[in-house]
Design a protein that fits this description.
By secondary structure, this protein is of the alpha/beta class. The strands form 6 sheets. It has an 8-stranded mixed sheet with strand order 8-7-6-4-5-9-10-20, with helices on both faces. Strands 1-3-2-12-11 form a 5-stranded mixed sheet, with helices on both faces. Strand 2 and strand 3 form a beta hairpin.
């Protein structure tokens, strides 16, 4: 194994970028399947070509160990993936067998992912926040034969419900720490799997390459389970052709340098991070840096200073909130400097969005304030080298996007879903419309149904839900379009705007149709609100449930000497209620009377991804929230 210490790179200058499509051989028509990248028609064949090309001379991944970022090459990637795949074959894995992965992001996640796919297995990621019962459901629904877990904590979940998972032949544990004296005939460790793979390789020297050659575009490569907001989670089957199509569309749309750095911190079992940190880097050669944990992401971003940064809106909201709070604590001079710098940035952005170039005076003014303030702000955030930042998985406030553009970090909003292999539309650096999710990706056909639903058709649309043909039939139209469930429109320039989910549309007692997403996003622009759910279906008026930002509201209370002992008492404090009331009143001014919030309640429970109310990407589940907090909601309508 090649391990090298890697010093933090601090240059402001982005790495050289060259459009991916100029560096690889690919068929130009993405409507013509299968899509070929460097002559490969499956992701595992492309993986083999990348590893052979880059070998021990190029870095594939970095992880931090004992305070030092350590590098791992494409040769490491290949050799470990091969041992995983052959080790599973030695244990009896057959083509089409499913292997479930239950681990936080780390290089071994990708070793296992690509290793098992290379020998014909189907990779199925499980969220580490899932309970033992949820694990058993996914393992059984996917008919997984093998389960790979990260550590003793995740192994405990299996041991708790092992009797409910009779189909599991073997469990492989990545970390031995805390399990040195553990012994169970059903459990082995990753190092044991490597040893099995090494023995198998000695007996069958060319079998790994042979299995890769057998891979076909229409074979299922991965199973990705939906969040289960409208029922039990469903396993979406994505084929090699689906993945190659979406990766090729990125190659057509963006410039990504072979030495570009990026951060992996969102769950790899979610299609968004899988696209960003597993599939696309195999095409581009970009270096994936694994964050130490979700809690250290901002520190790790500052250390790595990535060129590519992908996040969900909650992350961008959190960064903005930190700067807003810091500015509120700054000296008078500091506040003035920030205001002037941001104003110069916003003038430049407004002209850009109007299709105009900056005036000479505006350019000079921006250059001065960029040098004096904004450049240092970007460096402080670790975003000074970012060339492409994207937001996906949930709607993001246009005001927030404008703020990022103003400080010199253009965040491009994109749109997609699991069933479409993560990406359907996106804003491009040269084609941005705030409030929209951009234009259709290359090779994708998008239409608006009579009821306003966005429907898409491309080679990236999934094969169907595993074992649920009736659900698949509900999701795909007779002519092969994917029903996204989202309501939207397309303007004359091809920009797509999402107005909300069909199932989330509120029809008031007065018959007014309201899509709550815009109101909710405006509320979340406040640094004191982390999420909001607007209520009002078949009601006389709108109300809202608020989830406050713990860190920022706690600081607000401490600065004003508001007494509180825990999160519930913080939410109940009258000054905190007045703070939120003021935010709601300010937002109401931006909407018509029928769309204004008449009352609110604060959810006084501190929620995490382990809670049923939240999805793994930290979005409140509307239907679940409305059911669980029904008494709180009814309080707002008594006498109404």
């Amino acid at each position: 194994m090649t391990i090298q210490a890697q010093a933090t790179v601090s240059s402001d200058r982005p790495a050289p970028a060259q459009k991916i499509v100029n560096r690889i051989s690919m068929n130009a028509d993405l409507n013509e399947l299968p899509v070929l990248l460097d002559g490969a028609d499956t992701m595992v064949k492309l993986f083999q070509r990348r590893c052979a090309s880059y070998g021990a001379t190029r870095i594939a991944h970095r992880e931090k160990n004992l305070g030092i970022w350590r590098s791992f090459t494409w040769e490491d990637y290949w050799s470990h993936a091969r041992l995983v795949g052959l080790g599973l074959m030695a244990l009896g894995l057959k083509r089409g067998d499913v292997v479930s992965l239950l681990s936080e992001d780390r290089k071994e996640w990708l070793y296992c992912d690509m290793g098992l796919q290379s020998v014909g297995g189907v990779a199925c990621g499980v969220y580490t926040t899932d309970s033992a019962t949820q694990l058993a459901y996914i393992v059984n629904d996917s008919a997984s034969r093998f389960l790979i877990v990260e550590n003793d904590e995740q192994l405990d979940k299996f041991l708790t419900v092992r009797k409910d998972m009779p189909g599991i032949d073997k469990v492989i544990v990545i970390e031995r720490e805390g399990l040195h004296d553990f012994s169970d005939p059903s459990v082995i460790f990753l190092e044991d799997l490597y040893a099995l793979g090494s023995d198998y390789l000695a007996k069958h020297p060319a079998i790994f390459e042979t299995e890769i050659a057998k891979s076909a575009p229409d074979e299922v490569a991965v199973l990705i389970y939906t969040s289960g907001t409208t029922g039990p989670p469903k396993g979406a089957m994505l084929t090699h052709a689906n993945i190659m199509c979406v990766v090729a569309s990125i190659a057509q749309a963006y410039e990504i340098g072979e030495m570009d750095e990026q951060i992996c911190y969102l769950p790899l079992c979610h299609v968004y991070e899988r696209l960003n940190s597993a599939w696309t880097p195999i095409c581009t050669g970009a270096i994936v840096n694994f964050a130490e944990s979700p809690e250290t992401v901002f520190d790790n971003v500052r250390e790595v200073a990535p060129h590519l940064f992908a996040a969900v809106p909650r992350v961008y909201e959190k960064i903005y909130s930190r700067i807003a709070i810091m500015n509120s604590e700054a000296t008078g001079l500091g506040k003035l400097a920030y205001k002037m710098a941001l104003g110069a940035g916003l003038k430049k952005v407004n002209r850009q969005l109007e299709g105009k170039g900056p005036s000479p005076l505006n350019s000079l003014n921006y250059a001065i304030w960029d040098f004096a303030v904004l450049r240092n702000l970007r460096r402080m955030l670790g975003l000074h080298r970012v060339r492409r930042a994207t937001s996906g998985a949930a709607p993001i406030s246009p005001e927030l996007l404008k703020w990022y553009m103003a400080i010199g970090v253009p965040v491009l909003e994109a749109y997609g879903q699991t069933e479409g292999s993560a990406l359907a539309t996106a804003n491009r650096p040269d084609a941005i419309k705030l409030g929209s999710v951009g234009k259709s990706m290359e090779g994708l056909d998008l239409r608006i149904a009579p009821d306003g639903e966005i429907q898409i058709k491309s080679g990236a649309v999934f094969k169907g839900y595993l074992g649920k043909p009736e659900k698949t039939a509900e999701t795909l139209t007779a002519d092969g379009y994917l029903r996204t469930g989202d309501v939207g429109s397309i303007d004359e320039n091809g920009f797509v705007t999402i107005t909300g989910r069909i199932k989330d549309i509120i029809i008031t007692a007065g018959g007014k149709n309201i899509t709550p997403a815009e109101i909710e996003n405006r509320l979340k622009f406040s640094p004191y609100i982390s999420d909001a759910v607007v209520i009002g279906d078949r009601r006389q008026y709108l109300t809202v449930l608020i989830m406050i930002d713990q860190e920022n509201v706690e600081k607000f209370a401490q600065d004003r000497r508001v007494p509180f002992s825990d999160f519930a008492s913080l939410c109940a404090a009258e000054p905190v209620k007045e703070l939120i009331r003021g935010i709601v009143e300010d937002v109401n001014k931006e909407f018509a009377r029928v769309e204004q919030i008449k009352d609110f309640r604060i959810i006084d429970q501190l929620l995490t991804a382990e809670d049923d109310e939240l999805t793994p990407t930290m979005k409140l589940k509307r239907s679940f929230v409305e059911k669980k907090y029904k008494p709180l909601i009814e309080q707002m309508y008594r006498g109404g």
